[in-house]
Amino acid sequence: MKGEWQDAAVLLQRDPQLASAEITGSGDTALHMAAATRRTKFVKELVKMMSGTELLSMNKHGYTAFCYAAASGIVELAAVMLEKNKNLLTTRGNKQTMPLQIAASLGHKEMVSYLYKFIRVEDLSITEWFNLLIATIRNNMHDIALNILEMHRSNEKSMRYLVLHKDGLSGKRKKTGTALHQFVVKDISDSSSAREEAILKRFLTIFAAVRLPSRCKRIFEQPLMQRKNARLVAERLWSEMLRLEDVNLFEVLGEPAPILHEAAKVGNVGLISMLTLSYPDLIWQQDNNKRYIFHTAVLHRQENVFSLIHQIGSMKELIAIAVDDNNNNILHLAGN
């Protein structure tokens, strides 16, 4: 693939079948290689010479060239193939992974936004929708995650699966819990958003008379919008979970690790506040060491989380004297 298209064109004119022939030991065609190496010109010209059926060819690893295009993140590569064969969109690759899932897992927002436009709810199984939801949340594509939830709003069974299913409970993947668990490491604090919004408004006011490129404004707006959208997704997941009256929230949010304790470890006040505001009983959830979240906050030196203890009234007196499995109370842990 080091040469220019003109050189390859000479060979293909002599033998057009080379366009769809396997050229590597892994069963890759020239299109596989061109897509994998992000050679846009090669891809465009090869697609012209191939039939729509030939584009569905898989290598020995179980991937079409379209899967490689999705993995590249270059929308132009995917668009030229998809225009010739729409079935590429739903042709699963290795381990039955859809191209859209590949792009989402790799964090290619532009590619995901492009492919997502063509997806219908019936194109994916509910498990695939869940995997896509998890990937979009992890990679800060919260607008798409919110759309996935909205798409399944009228299907109670599907929504239940999206809200309650836990990632990584089978296979070799690390257990990470429900979709809501993914927000443990995300800042969804209202106060932070308000502060940043004030800074943004001040910046725009100061430089109102200066003609700045639109991308400069986006640099300031993007983090703010990401946080707002992240909170919207978290709130939607939480509200849907609260609607399920037959669900034990302590069990759902307690595995693979108690969500409040994980949030306390990293100082995620926004998530803790959101959950406990509408379900205060979660404050009493203990981890495997019989610790409450305030014990965890002290142990991990998260002062902002520990300060929430002043908002729980007389409950703080009971928690203050509570001891863990090693007979350590909060004062003992503070001295460690």
Task: Describe the protein in words.
This protein has 19 helices and no strands. It is mainly α and 336 residues long. The mean pLDDT is 86.
Outline:
With 336 residues, this protein is mostly helical. It is 55% helix and 0% strand. InterPro entries: Ankyrin_rpt, Ankyrin_rpt-contain_sf.
Instruction: Give the radius of gyration.
Output: 25 Å
Low-confidence stretches: none
Order of helices and strands: HHHHHHHHHHHHHHHHHHH
Strand-residue proportion = under 5%
Structural class: mainly alpha
| Annotation field: number of helices | 19
| Shape estimate | elongated
What are the defining features of this structure?
single chain, 336 residues, mainly alpha, 55% helix
What's the topology here?
Elements: H1 5-14, H2 30-36, H3 40-49, H4 65-72, H5 75-84, H6 99-105, H7 109-116, H8 126-138, H9 142-151, H10 156-164, H11 190-206, H12 214-243, H13 249-252, H14 259-265, H15 269-278, H16 293-299, H17 303-306, H18 315-321, H19 330-335
